Amino acid sequence: MFENLQDKLNQAFKTLKGQGRITEINVATTVKEVRRALTDADVNYKVAKEVTDRVKEKALDRKVLIAVEPGQLFVKIVQEELTDLMGGEAQSINLKGDPAIILIAGLQGSGKTTFSGKLAAYLKKQGRNVLLTACDIYRPAAIDQLKVLGEQVGVEVYAEPENKNAVEIAQNALAHARKTGKKVVIVDTAGRLAVDEVMMKEVENLKRSLNPTETLFVVDSMTGQDAVNTAKTFNDRLNFDGVVLTKLDGDARGGAALSIRGVVQKPIKFISTGEKMEALDIFYPDRMASRILGM
Amino acid sequence: VGKSTVDEEVLDELEEVLITSDVGVGTTVKIIRRIEDRVARDKYVSTNELDNILREEIAGLLAENKSIDVDDDFALPVDKKPYVIMVVGVNGVGKTTTIGKLAAQFHKRGYKVVLGAGDTFRAAAVTQLKLWGQRVGVPVIEHGMNTDPSAVAFDAVKKAVDMNADVVIIDTAGRLHTKVNLMNELSKIKRVVQKFLPEAPHEVLLVLDGSTGQNAFIQATEFTKATDVTALAITKLDGTAKGGVVIGISDQFRIPVKYIGVGEKIEDLQTFNKMEFVDSFFKKI
Ligand SMILES: Nc1nc2c(ncn2[C@@H]2O[C@H](COP(=O)(O)OP(=O)(O)OP(=O)(O)O)[C@@H](O)[C@H]2O)c(=O)[nH]1
Ligand SMILES: Nc1nc2c(ncn2[C@@H]2O[C@H](COP(=O)(O)OP(=O)(O)OP(=O)(O)O)[C@@H](O)[C@H]2O)c(=O)[nH]1
Ligand SMILES: [K+]
Ligand SMILES: [Mg+2]
Ligand SMILES: [Mg+2]
């Protein structure tokens, strides 16, 4: 692995310096090292290439080869580049609207239902009156799961176990929210693959019908190279507003975060760091950059 | 493209293809080296031949490391009854669903199946497994939520013996391999089951999500440490993820891939077939 990316780079530069010549080619060798490190962290190959191309330019600009600690400076440049790419500042969600509607979408098992519960708890804590809505009509016990979470965080869950029309359920939930004075409606949906046309159509219909204030795309931080394809397709279909990165309590580098930023210009708004309802955090690009670099 | 012989540029492209399929750097480098060797040996290798060479090399990697084809098609060993399967893996990879599908396959072949609801933690996990049990038509042994998973596993195996069942499949809660306590809990479940049936579990099935990247390698390492994983199931291969982890994992571990998940429906589980996998991999890349 590359816990020692910095050491590796220092070593590489030492060798290069020993050769007594500072050339663009020398930097290119080091750049390749960085690119390997990024793809090892699951950053998409093409995105990694773009990043390292820019890093190379900056490294030459900032005369990295005559620096006292070239490896350190090089890593710093990479880190800055990653932070910039991931959006610089943390971004919050939009809660305008009466009620505000938040639509949750993503692949199977990414952590949508768990996140829905967490977000409900988070918003409730801010004093908002929240309704959770169970629109996963497929997965066995999906409704029960959301109900258990709703109960844990003390938020009402709207569900229609017999109804097989997600759009209808969502609309009824909305009516119920208006009647009962809820200020935020969170809509949990079934997991779906980007290539599943019927299911993608369903979530598109949900979006069109609800006109949500926020559509959030939930991604497992362990996702590999395919993160770009999935994010791109979901974005093409839903034009989502933000990304939720889950399961960051593990040791996945989370290069998917960078890949997604690289292909769809949408901010990561929350991170999920555990199974418990309080394990929710806002996203800090600089922390994520360090994580991807294994530092 | 447009090239007739395999050179540095073609190999760079190949590296890109393998990396973007989640094969992993280690295995990718290994494959590239082997192809370089062949190119050096055979002098002029055309890019047309590259495809076949790559196929051969990948199939070779899968074969070298015990990832033999499971051609017995969901058959259970005759001398191990009940055959105890413990299913483990990180959160959300498809453990419970795979158990449901596996139960259906065994049931269809006339085996008597018992399921054990050892995920007593995740919201509605017991209900989820019970619904799968109903769907398949097999009994589910459960102690409800927030109970001791070891006790559930023990009870499931004991009841399976009482019922003269052929196979018992134990579900466990999803857990990240970095959580020491939870990993210890898995070792404990295993130990407790062994108190009743010393040779059990006969199979520890690690479920990996086919869209997982490099973390899959760490998962395989860590779960093996805690539970001596004997087989792998790779799920969600019906998606756009190319499933290169199958190649990387087969190369780096001596654990056979036994099953693949290709959908959410009851019939969407297949035994792993090396050549079929290679074919579908090539269709995706
Ligand atoms: N460790 C950890 N586990 C998580 C996190 N978020 C979700 N999970 C777990 O991941 C698994 C899947 O989460 P769900 O919320 O059911 O995922 P989902 O996207 O709703 O799944 P489907 O509805 O089947 O598509 C469960 O075991 C959750 O407890 C997280 O941030 N960390
Ligand atoms: N497309 C597809 N979806 C799958 C496959 N296997 C499982 N799933 C889906 O993945 C999601 C998670 O599956 P589960 O079986 O609940 O996963 P799990 O590992 O038991 O999850 P936890 O117990 O929460 O850790 C569900 O929505 C399943 O329907 C598969 O092969 N293909
Ligand atoms: K996943
Ligand atoms: Mg869900
Ligand atoms: Mg489960």
Structural class of chain A: alpha/beta
User: How widely separated are the two ends of chain A?
Assistant: 12 Å
N-to-C series of helices and strands of chain A: HHHHEHEHEHEHEHEHEEH
Shape of chain A: elongated
Largest interface: A-B, 47 and 44 residues
Give me the oligomer status: heterodimer
Span between termini of chain B: 15 Å
Side-by-side strand order of the widest sheet of chain B: 3-2-4-1-5-6-7-8
- Which small compounds were modeled alongside the protein? guanosine-5'-triphosphate, potassium ion, magnesium ion
Category from helices, strands and their pairing of chain B? alpha/beta
Q: What portion of residues of chain B is helical?
A: 40-55%
Would you spell out the secondary-structure blueprint of this structure?
The complex is a heterodimer of chains A (295) and B (285).
Chain A: H1 5-18, H2 24-40, H3 45-61, H4 70-85, E1 100-106, H5 112-125, E2 130-135, H6 142-153, E3 156-158, H7 166-179, E4 184-189, H8 197-210, E5 214-220, H9 227-238, E6 242-246, H10 256-263, E7 268-272, E8 280-282, H11 285-292
Chain B: H1 8-19, H2 25-42, H3 47-64, E1 83-88, H4 95-108, E2 113-118, H5 125-136, E3 140-141, H6 149-162, E4 167-172, H7 180-196, E5 203-209, H8 215-227, E6 231-235, H9 245-252, E7 257-261, E8 269-271, H10 274-284
Parallel strand pairs in B: 1-4, 1-5, 2-3, 2-4, 5-6, 6-7
Antiparallel strand pairs in B: 7-8
Helix pairs in contact in B: 1-2, 3-10, 4-5, 6-7
The complex binds guanosine-5'-triphosphate (2 copies), potassium ion (K) and magnesium ion (MG) (2 copies).
